[in-house]
Write a structure and sequence with these properties.
The chain has helices spanning 35-60, 62-73, 77-85; strands spanning 93-97, 101-110, 113-123. By secondary structure, the protein is an alpha+beta fold. A three-stranded antiparallel beta sheet has the order 1-2-3.
């Protein structure tokens, strides 16, 4: 014996009547203001100039390089920091070293906050 099943009806989605109006969302991000970004870039340019002064001194003055390495070998942290900061740089340098390398960090500020940081690591 065979039973007849009710036919299946396919209702396309465009026949649904529960159309909701589309909601257009506003941009969740604030308006773009490049002032801080450009000020940071300008401050970083000065950091790059300071880094160039430091690198030039290490590259061309064996006497200066010797003084820095000698003080580091004797664990005279303040002396190493003072030697680096004695160069004609406009930002104070944070200095850290170990038997493998020296790390010099230059930090610039704009509007009383740290805006950019340049870290140099040199192997010795």
């Amino acid at each position: 014996m065979h039973y007849l099943l009710p036919p299946y009806f396919y209702i396309p989605s465009f026949f649904h009547t529960d159309h909701k109006p589309k909601v257009f969302r506003q941009n969740p991000y604030p308006d773009i203001d490049t002032t801080n970004f450009t000020e940071s870039a300008q401050a970083f340019q000065v950091l790059m100039q300071d880094a160039e002064i430091i690198i030039e001194e290490f590259a061309h003055s064996k006497e200066f390089a010797f003084k820095v390495m000698d003080a580091a070998q004797k664990s005279e942290h303040e002396k190493v920091k003072n030697l680096i900061n004695s160069l004609d740089i406009s930002h104070p340098a944070e200095v850290d070293f170990n038997p493998d390398n020296i790390r010099i960090t230059l930090i610039a500020q704009t509007k009383d906050m740290d805006c950019c940081r340049l870290v140099m690591e040199l192997h010795w």
